[in-house]
Known about the structure:
By secondary structure, this protein is α+β, with helices and mostly antiparallel strands.
Amino acid sequence: KVKCDFKKLGPKFGKQMKAVAAAVAGMPQEAIAELEKNGKYTLNLEGAEAVIEAADVEIFSEDIPGWLVANEGKLTVALEVTVTEELRREGIARELVNRIQNIRKSSGFEITDKIKITISKNTQTDDAVKEYNTYICNQVLGTSLELVDEVKDGTELSFDDFSLFVNVVKD
């Protein structure tokens, strides 16, 4: 998006100021890129030409739904921030690895101790545990990872909107 600096446009374009401002506001992305690259851009206003310079306008980015946009100078970066179901499951798996590692540590296990893991079933996490079972076991030296209806003597893990129980024992 491009926004006009009317204080600079007024003296420069006089009576054409409103037409120039409207044309600047409606500039396509290619024209904005040319203005950024060359420092000026020529507008065609009903047969008359108006040259705007980078100093005449402010170029800024707006967030696009599902994207996070930031710019500094001529550099603009856009990141897609939509969390897909696949990313959600991977995030849960990574969080479980972190939490299980913390349980290992607080239980006083040696770094080389193999463990058996039991996790209570939960609709929020079951798919991630099934899909990333091998990954989780490899990361925490688990010899098995089992989903069960009820975990006895488990540690409660609280997430944003749910909790589950995990039991970690030496193998």
